[in-house]
Amino acid sequence: MLRHCLAALALLMPSATVYAAEPAQKIWLFNGTAIDNSIKCDLASAARSGRYKILPNLMKARVTVNVEKSNNVESKLVLKFPWLEIGGSSGNATGNTMKNDYEATFNISGENSVNCRKNNQFTTGNLECLKDALRRLAEFDDVKATCERIFTATYTGSASAKLPAWKIEIGPDLSAKNSVSYKVNLIIPASKAKAAQ
Fold first, then answer.
1. Nearest of 149, 160, 159, 29 to residue 82 by alpha carbon
2. Which of 34, 67, 80, 96 has the fewest CB atoms found within 10 Å of its own CB?
3. Tens of pLDDT, residues 101-145
4. What is the pLDDT of residues 169-194, one digit of tens each?
């Protein structure tokens, strides 16, 4: 009986680790440059993950970043969150956020790995999807791949040199005050994004 229970537990363990939450990341400064560095690092890591034979004109990703939600962001912190526009509010906090999109086209290149060594970059959660997109693009002529993930930035209020000021978590976790969720959408190749609009 014990052997059957252990066998059943062993079967359940791999699936539990697949769904485990990714640990929070901490960075010193959170701004548009930190987001760009992070996306470029993911694109570089995906490009270096295999020997893909893909035409150079297809090695571009159309990137869209937008604000999804905010949780009681104090008005004095509004300028610290990239692309966060605040509507009417009462007191010093607000839950009313207007969406503001940012779009750019980035090269999918191993040369972008310089961004992986920068202090203010974090994992966006799109790497595995990007690797899969490149594998499909190398196999098929006409592929459009979309990778999309939400991450949440929380201002921790620490200005000391010993503690990071920002906590980044994958997913829309807005349980903490002064948190903003962003959605990162990548379309590969970038030419397919333009055709869809």
1. 29
2. 96
3. 789 999 999 998 999 998 889 999 999 999 999 999 989 878 899
4. 999 878 888 999 999 999 999 988 86
Q: What is the pLDDT of residue 70?
A: 87
Show Cβ contacts of residue 147 under 8 Å, excluding neighbours closer than 6 positions: 126, 129, 130, 133, 185, 186, 188
What pLDDT is attached to residue 3?
43
Q: How far is residue 40's CA from residue 127's CA, in Å, rounded to a whole number?
A: 11
Task: Write out the chain in H/E/C secondary structure.
Answer: CHHHHHHHHHHHHHHHHHCCCCCCEEECCCCHHHHHHHHHHHHHHHHCCCCCCCCHHHCEEEEEEEEEEEECEEHHHHHHCCCCEECCCECCEECCEECCEEEEEEECCHHHHHHHHCCCCCCCCCHHHHHHHHHHHHHCCCCCEEEEEEEEEEECCCCCCCCCCEEEEECCCCCCCCEEEEEEEEEECHHHHHHHC
**What is the C-alpha to C-alpha distance for residues 181 and 153, in angstroms, rounded to an integer?**
6
Cβ pair 120, 34 in contact under 8 A: yes
Which residues lie closer than 8 Å to 31 by C-beta, 6 or more apart? 80, 82, 120
Listed residue (107, 124, 125, 103) closest to 57, CA to CA? 107
pLDDT over 70, % of the chain: 76
Averaged pLDDT, 71-100: 68
